[in-house]
Amino acid sequence: MHRFSRRQLLALGGAAVSQFALGGMRCHAASPWIDHQSYGPFQCHASFPLGNLEPLFQELSALELELQRTLAVPPAAQTIDVFLLEDKRRHQELLRQLFPQVPYRRALYVQRGGRGSVYAYRHREVAVDLRHECTHALLHTNLSVVPLWLDEGLAEYFEMPAADRAFDHPHLQRLRLNLRFGLIPELEALESLEDLSDMGGAEYRYSWAWVHFMLHGPLPVHRALVHYLADIRRGNPPGKLSTRLHQTTPRLKHQLVIHFKKWRR
Ligand SMILES: [Zn+2]
Predict the structure, then answer these.
(1) 87 CA to middle of ligand 1, Å?
(2) What is the pLDDT of residues 93-125, one digit of tens each?
(3) String of b and e for 13-28 (b: at least 16 CB within 10 Å)?
(4) Who surrounds ion ligand 1 at CB < 5 A?
(5) What does pTM read for this prediction?
(6) Which domains does the chain possess?
(7) CA 3 / ligand 1 centre spacing (Å)
(8) How many CB atoms lie under 10 A from the CB of residue 6?
(9) How far is residue 202's CA from residue 65's CA, in Å, rounded to a whole number?
């Protein structure tokens, strides 16, 4: 349930992707999309009546405001297409036709020609999938580059419903166990990851942990994140976020450990 790397996207090729996705001329099958709705920056196309999913899409629209509030990023610079299939089989079929070279994922975000699209299907966890992928999509409308670990850490953080983000992510319990055994990696180790295939469950969890620390930890740490994203947006060479964080906060990893030790409702 994740984004493609830029390299993978470039390899996709073929201008027919978005045409096919929207039922364009080159598609030999009839368009599967029967319901089209706009929610904030999201243009939703579903193969079933969206009816009872409306609250979820309204929540997605609120996600844009939440990113503005917490990360000081501007509103989405372009609209984002969200394609929602009614079941896994149809979703697999569509992705196989659109992206035959790419391993199947339950949900994914792709960006082509500056426009983002999210592909998912209706199932019990679809809300988590959509919040995760739409976080990637919103970030990438304004930021040309987001380091892999940070992109995933933010998407993991915002994939929970708003009320559960700070205290109730399933990562928290597991992370506390990791902390007990001193397993938290230096930020530099996450920064060295370049490909999604380098990211396993632990890497997602640790990326989430550093994001949680930056959003809920000491103010200078949060400020460093906000300034880092602002520099990316303005086209200033951002360097490494770890360098900035070490400058603002001595004994950085120790501070992260303290943050989670004290983290209570
Ligand atoms: Zn992701």
Answers:
(1) 21
(2) 999 999 998 889 999 999 887 789 999 999 999
(3) eeeebbebbbeeeeee
(4) 2, 152, 155
(5) 0.90
(6) 2-142 (3.40.30.160), 162-262 (no CATH)
(7) 5
(8) 12
(9) 29
